[in-house]
Amino acid sequence: MPDASATDLENLLGTGVGAAQEQLERNGGFLPFALVVENDGEVRLVAVTPADAAEGTGADFDADSMISDLTELLRQHRDEFRAAAIVCDITLLEEASDAIHVAAEHRDGSLFAAVLPYAANPATHELEFGELSADTNEPGVWVD
């Protein structure tokens, strides 16, 4: 992976994890969102309107639908930026834990994804974050 691409993806990862942690600590959760590195190097937040959850699911919004909307929006505007990441809240079934998931990709084909597990401490109700670890990722923006 070229150094410039690695720098862009690391920037998106750090910004994405930081923004998600801030939302979790302030609001107890966060909606899926995207970040892009514009062609001039600026990082910008991209959001979509929450999709209503299907009746009877008990969810407040449909995260999968929002992620699809974000991916489509990024795909349509990909000439305006050189890297993108989608940040979402996932459940790690093996660890029975929630996690921040960041899936980043660069226009040159470089991919990077990471997960950061978190849980509320039962005694203090404060969020405790685990170890950041690499995850697999498929391209979603620079595909035709």
Terminal CA distance reads 21 Å
Question: How many β strands by DSSP?
Answer: 7
Average pLDDT level: 90
Binned strand content: 25-35%
Briefly note the structural class of the backbone: alpha+beta
- Radius of gyration using CA atoms only: 15 Å
Count of separate DSSP helical elements = 2
Q: What is the helical fraction, as a range of percent?
A: 25-40%
In N-to-C order, the SSE pattern is HEEHEEEEE
Q: How does this model look, in words?
A:
With 144 residues, the chain is of the alpha+beta class. It has one domain. It has two helices and seven strands, in the order αββαβββββ. The protein has helices at 3-27, 63-76, and strands spanning 33-38, 43-46, 81-92, 97-106, 111-120, 127-129, 133-135. Strands 1, 2, 3, 4, 5, 6 and 7 form a seven-stranded antiparallel sheet that branches. Strand 4 and strand 5 (111-120) form a beta hairpin. The longest helix is centred in the first third of the chain and has 25 residues, at 3-27. The two termini are 21 Å apart. 26% of the residues are buried.
Could you give a short description of this structure?
By secondary structure, the chain is α+β, with helices and mostly antiparallel strands. 27% of the residues lie in helices and 33% in strands.
Question: What's the topology here?
Answer:
Blueprint: H1 3-27, E1 33-38, E2 43-46, H2 63-76, E3 81-92, E4 97-106, E5 111-120, E6 127-129, E7 133-135
Antiparallel strand pairs: 1-2, 1-3, 3-4, 4-5, 5-6, 5-7
